[in-house]
Amino acid sequence: MKTADKYKPANLGEVIYPSEAIRKRIQGYMSGQLEGHLLLWGPNGTGKTTVADMLPNYISNGNPYIETDYKSVLKQNDMDLYISNECHYASLFSSKPKFFMVFHEFDNAKGNINDLWTALDKHANKVMLIITSNDPMNIHKSLRSRCDEIPFPALTARQVLPRALQILKAEGVDLPEKQVLHYLMQIEHFGDLRKYFAKLDEIILHSKSGGAFPPAPTFILNSNKVKFSVV
Fold first, then answer.
1. Under 8 Å between Cβ of 112 and 79
2. Positions of CATH 3.40.50.300 in the chain
3. Structure pTM?
């Protein structure tokens, strides 16, 4: 099994966030301290889809009522009636009733956008829209203005390193921290967690096949950056 599948986050606490500030904002929505619609944006493989899919489970105490097919929603002839009915159904499922709409790849979506944001305003306390996008400017400005925009930028090798070390240890691979960081930095330009996991798959396979690992360049780790030394 690939590490991306075997070690995918089981909860939002296992997500690799781009910063402590963003982690705290997500925690605010998890706990109910923050409320409102969300627009999570950034390149592929940065965790925004995982967060969007898991967040309703926390807000609803484990029993969310979710719609994910935005194309069918945007075809509704009476958006207000549709959302009103869905909010009612949501109240039957959870002690914290809320109708969630989680829309992925919502960039440049077509349909009854104006009716949607009007209905969102009318039922603001009963519905939550969560959108993921590669580019927030591709989201209709009327919806974008109603969302809290949270960026999920490309992940750096250093951000992924702690999770990578945990995975390698669980797989019985014992490598120095600086060597693992060196391998991760080889594909850092992608900034994609799936690419990092693929690199871990390579390392694990190489280890289990008994191959010797090439030495990493000599470098010095400090709290802020990696400094390469000339030898």
1. yes
2. 17-151
3. 0.88
Per the listing, tokens 């039922």 go with 123
Cα 127 from Cα 36, distance rounded (Å)? 9
Task: Tell me the sheet residues that pair with 228.
Answer: 219
Q: Tens digits of per-residue pLDDT, 92-133? A: 877 778 999 999 989 989 999 999 999 999 999 999 999 999
Q: Which residues contact 46 (CB under 8 A, 6 or more apart)?
A: 18, 152, 153, 154, 155, 191, 192, 193
Task: pLDDT band for 229, please (50, 70, 90 cuts).
Answer: very low
Dist. CA 128–CA 174, nearest whole Å? 44
For 167-190, the DSSP string reads HHHHTT----HHHHHHHHHTTGGG
Domain 17-151, second-level architecture: 3-Layer(aba) Sandwich (3.40)
Residue 109 to residue 80: CA distance in whole angstroms? 19
- Within 8 A by CB and 6+ apart from 214, the residues are none
> Pick from 179, 188, 165, 172: which is nearest to 213 by CA?
179
Q: Which sign does the torsion angle of CA 56, 47, 113, 120 carry?
A: positive
Contact 99, 87 (CB under 8 A): yes
